[in-house]
Structures are given as structure tokens and as C-alpha cells.
Amino acid sequence: MLEGLSGFAIILVLAVVVAMVIMAISNDLAPKGVDSPGKLAPYACGEDVQPAKVRLNVENFFIYTVYFMIFDVLGFVMATTIARPTNVILPLAYAAASLISIVILTAKWRL
Fold first, then answer.
1. Which DSSP string do the residues of the chain spell out, in sequence order?
2. Degrees, nearest 5: CA angle 39-40-43
3. Number of structural domains, the chain?
């Protein structure tokens, strides 16, 4: 068993050494830019935006992530139960629960 682990360790060390050599060479060859005031500005587009204007409303994104998760899991359940159509009750129950949760979420989101 140790023979297999020693071969893996040699390959791992060799890969890390090759990666470090490539990074060292590319760091020497890469062009170095000059730090200008525009480059060091908080926004690369050149606009001076006040921090108070940049606030994001995360609640709007949250509802879409919940919808995505519901449909993602529903799609996975449906895709994995197609191979065994005899067990139809579980996917249908999950689809019904998903539909009910989407209706509830949509009703709460509209309020």
C-alpha cells in the first residue's frame, strides 16, 4: 500500500514544483502597470459613486434563489425517478409541495 502512496506523493510534489516554476517565470515576464489615480479609484469606470448609492436590496435576489433551488431539486427528483416509473407517488408529492410553496412565496412577495 505504501508503494501507491509514494507514487502519488512524488507526482503531487512534481506538480506543485512545475506550477511554482511556471508562476515564477510568468511573474518575471508579465508587464508591470503603473499605478495611476484612476486605476486605484474604487470604480474602474471612472465615476465617483457615493457609497450610499451602491446599496443592494438582497431580498429581491433571495426570492429568485429560492425559486431556483425549488425547481433545481424538483428537476433532480423528476430526472432520477424517470428510470423507475413504478414509484410515482414520491415525485408527485414533491411536485405538489413545490407548487404549494411557490404559491405561498409568490403571495408573500406581492404583499
1. -HHHHHHHHHHHHHHHHHHHHHHHHHHHHSPPPP--TTTTSS-TTS----GGGG---HHHHHHHHHHHHHHHHHHHHHHHHSS-TT--HHHHHHHHHHHHHHHHHHHHHH-
2. 75
3. 1
Q: Cell numbers of 108, please? A: 408573500
Report if residue 33 sits inside a domain: no
What residues make up the domain containing 62? 47-111
From first to last of its 111 residues, what are the pLDDT tens digits of the chain?
456 667 788 888 999 999 999 999 988 888 877 777 766 666 646 566 566 655 677 777 777 888 888 888 888 887 777 766 667 777 788 888 888 888 887 787 666
Residue 26 covered by a domain: no
Instruction: Note the pTM of the prediction, 2 decimals.
Output: 0.41
The answer to whether the CB of 81 falls within 8 A of the CB of 87 is: yes
Tell me if 31 is assigned to some domain.
no
